[in-house]
């Protein structure tokens, strides 16, 4: 049991540390939790600026529902960064429900989001709790851009692109491989999920603000088709993206294909071990702290309807810091008032897209959106 209102589970990881950094800036007491207290202590002291002024404690916990629920008891919000979430998420969600805490995480794994909605959404709603996976730059910023476009009535199709500069973290590399090996990527077509062609490979996309085409992948399909599947405004939604580094993007399909081929005949446990080893070969150390001159982000949404169009572009920097801020603001908001929607809900539905944009703008992490309209 804790007396702190927020628990960051997986706090020693790259994203977890950034969430703690912004919780400190919001003056929110928190628990930095994970499976190794020594690693947590070292990570907080070495990697969270100003940690000496934060009101926090460290908690070592084993990854099972009973232990996690005991730790979460007394907390109002749990920020989960421990992935792959389709593998490790259920215990955390069930522990939150048992402890009466809101749940937020940073992933856009489609299979995990669908599981959250179908298996846990009703129970969270009945308890008056929020269940909001995918609060992160890669997913929330695109949703903010989409919502800005959808303020113009009559648009029913969303074409979403997200790009960022920099290297993936250890955890996100593993998540990419596990997600590719165990689930399919979908887009939304006439309110139904349609599978991306897994053999299609890289797709060239036009990126606003540059002449060179960028290379994109479905990236698991992302969370956007799930959020908009039951939205009466939207019938079609496709999201793709990648990193600005073309050489790295060209290598991703090969890495995934090799990992899938090497693990296709293995059982679940052996496959996970092999994929973990493959991920370590791609990224085995924490990326450096982000540089705003190098680590840029871009979210672009084309929204269209029978007689109208809208386009929104959001330029930003330091995408992992954006994720840390979004998570911390979600906790900050939940500590002061109920979310706009309980149960399974996106960040924009729970907190408001303009409110989230305002926080990103206030902390200097995104520019003013470029929004244009055509037609009726």
Mean pLDDT: 91
**Major beta sheet, specifics?**
7 strands, parallel
Number of strands: 16
Strand order of the largest sheet: 3-2-1-4-5-6-15
- Count every helix, treating DSSP H or I runs of 4 or more residues as helices: 13
Structure explained in plain terms:
The chain is α/β, with parallel strands linked by helices. The chain is built from 13 helices and 16 strands. Strand 1, helix 1 and strand 2 (30-34) form a beta-alpha-beta unit. Helix 7 crosses helix 9 (246-263), helix 7 packs across helix 10 (268-282) and helix 9 packs antiparallel against helix 10 (268-282). It starts with 5 loop residues before the first strand and ends with a strand. The mean pLDDT is 91.
Which key phrases capture this entry?
5-stranded mixed beta sheet, 16 strands, globular, 376 residues, alpha/beta
Describe the secondary-structure layout:
Elements: E1 6-9, H1 14-25, E2 30-34, H2 37-47, E3 56-60, H3 65-72, E4 77-80, H4 85-99, E5 102-105, H5 110-126, E6 130-132, H6 137-150, E7 157-164, H7 170-182, E8 186-189, E9 192-195, E10 203-205, E11 214-216, H8 224-228, E12 236-243, H9 246-263, H10 268-282, E13 296-304, E14 308-317, H11 319-334, E15 343-344, H12 347-351, H13 353-362, E16 370-375
Helix pairs in contact: 1-11, 3-4, 4-5, 6-13, 7-9, 7-10, 9-10
In short:
The chain has 376 residues and is an alpha/beta fold. 42% of the residues lie in helices and 22% in strands.
